[in-house]
Amino acid sequence: MQKSISECTTRHSLKELSLQEQHVHLSAPLSGPPGKVIISHGSDFSYVGIDAILEQMRRKAMKQGFELNIMVVGQSGLGKSTLMNTLFKSKVSRKSVQPIPEERIPKTIEIKSISHDIEEKGVRMKLTVIDTPGFGDQINNENCWQPIMKFINDQYEAYLQEEININRKKRIPDSRVHCCIYFIPPTGHCLRPLDVEFMRRLSKVVNIVPVIAKADTLTLEERDYFKQTIREELRANGIDVYPQKEFDEDADDRLINDKIREMIPFAVVGSDQEYQVNGKRILGRKTKWGTIEVENIAHCEFAYLRDLLIRTHMQNIKDITGSIHYETYRVRRLNESNTHFSSQPSDHPPVQPKANGQLEVQPSAVQANGVAAQHEALSHEM
Ligand SMILES: Nc1nc2c(ncn2[C@@H]2O[C@H](COP(=O)(O)OP(=O)(O)O)[C@@H](O)[C@H]2O)c(=O)[nH]1
Ligand SMILES: [Mg+2]
């Protein structure tokens, strides 16, 4: 599903269409109520009807629905669950429960996925939030990024196994993490070594969107200073967060994404409480000195984050996951298979990645779960 939607909605294809439209003389435009295409050709046989493809795509996309998998990472209590609830104005993520005493310092990071079907104006979306409670909560946080890296790679591996199966599903279930929201504590100083280490490693395998958590605890000056410091530190450490400069497709992209890059990390405030302000119901945090409206851009940058994830860049986030991050994993994985098999050529001929990027599966190589099942998941780390 992802491929067909992404192919259909790339700017290139739209541009090509509009170019062609200029050459096609339309004797009668498309008309009729939305959702129904009535094409009247009149007597002009030069009308081909290429423009109707947009309607076909729309109907197909509506039928299939959309899927987005968001992972949230950060220390307990930084407002991850609250922000996810704010994002979709529904209880998509469970609030932290007070841990029972013996569980106060968990030994491992437990990763939980919660899926919700959301519908708005007839468009269906399956949102999966992957919560990583306890990240960085231990006294020794060395290598605490590892379980998260493993989880991300496991999802790539599951997808790869489905792809190389001879009898593959019409729609491969996509559990790949499309975006990882990384919560930076609102210290106002600089990134901690843990933050740098996590983002440096993980930005190579997943789209990272850093946010400053609980930004209502900073003054405007502190917030601006902190944002600037973080941007400088990301640059100094060679950390490429989403939207990555090298994946801008054209000058239009660059223009839009440069504006986003200047605003990163978003200083967010979350709340799932509704209040009445000036006769309107708003999501906010009520304090003694007033109510912070989380969706008001004069108060915080939550709305920018939401727009990026859902309204403007959702398809691009998924495209980059598929064509860059997953692709890197896939190529590496299959190369490893090749190396492995070429050293033991007699038993299992390998899966061959062809120059055009497609897989050529040697039937004898495919076992119950595909050839690559014989290997441990590799660390997809450059
Ligand atoms: N001041 C402030 N508090 C917040 C914000 N978001 C969440 N909280 C509060 O912080 C506490 C922990 O939030 P929670 O979402 O459970 O954090 P999690 O452990 O990261 O999932 C709760 O009491 C929230 O009400 C925020 O943006 N600002
Ligand atoms: Mg939580």
From TrEMBL:
Coiled coil: none annotated. It comes from the Eukaryota. It is found in: Cytoplasm, Cytoskeleton. One of its GO terms (biological process) is cell division. SUPFAM superfamilies: P-loop containing nucleoside triphosphate hydrolases (SSF52540). Residues 64-336 form the Septin-type G domain. GO terms for cellular component: cytoskeleton. Keywords: Cell cycle, Cell division, Cytoplasm, Cytoskeleton, GTP-binding, Nucleotide-binding. PANTHER family: SEPTIN (PTHR18884). This is Septin-9-like. It comes from Sphaeramia orbicularis (orbiculate cardinalfish).
